Amino acid sequence: MTDIRQTPQYAKYMRALGWKAEKISGVYYFIKKFPIIGHFVKIQRYDAVLNEHDLKKLSNKYKIFRIVVEPQSINNGLWLMDNKFKQTAAYSPSKTLQLDLTLTQKKLYQQLKKDCKYSLRKNIEHRIKCIEENNIEKFHKNWKASVPFSRYVPSLNNLTSLKKAFEDNCLLLSCSRTQKLNKAGAVFLKSKDIGYYWFAFTNKESRKNLVQYKILWEGILWAKKRGAKKFDFEGIYDKRFPNKKWLGFTHFKKSFGGYEVEFPGAFSKKNFIKNYKLVKNSWRF
């Protein structure tokens, strides 16, 4: 299945954030210009084989100082290493968790772990309700108010651009019981056959009342209702590239069941143009 980062909607979103998005041989390339040093290129979650001809076309058009590639398949990762790309920090998760949404809602519920079922029952007891938030500015304000200053919060422009790009396939979900509890929410996306848990936030009071379980469960059901066949939790802890900060939310996500999916990670090459040599009218690394 095509990853969201290789769809026209995601390309529209990236263009709104100031990136160029070009599609060559079925693969989207995202390009950003930096003064003096040139262009940075990233290619994310493609499921094809990059070839010298396409890279030549790109290098002829832009002065590329660095390229980062995040393939879906191990074979494509091996191709990159054979061509002198080096492993680097990833822009998208190297490991994730996915649910089979072709299962009935009853079976999806049955595969939830005990702590997840307990939390959802508590949500019912506390009369926690989820609502679709159409006021993006309000959603953004609540997000900023619910997390520490050091935590990343996408800009209002970022959220607005995301909603415009995905339209009805972008859900901003908030949960409420009291005014304090209203500062909890998540952003869900759907692209073709896959639903995504894209962003999420909770304040201290919401976490205490286990509101995050209700939000995610409702997002999963929303994606299923819209025809998604898979649900992607967008990242869990990966011991190959350890980040202990990911352990907590990995436990939370795994309480919903599902199966793990690994990607090769990210690969980078600097001084991209200088690494090419023209030999008999063909480009090679």
Automatic annotation (TrEMBL):
Taxonomy, superkingdom: Bacteria
Entry coiled-coil feature ranges: none
GO molecular function terms attached to this record: aminoacyltransferase activity
GO biological process, one term: regulation of cell shape
Keywords carried by this UniProt record: Acyltransferase, Cell shape, Cell wall biogenesis/degradation, Peptidoglycan synthesis, Transferase
Family: Belongs to the FemABX family.
Protein name (record): Methicillin resistance protein
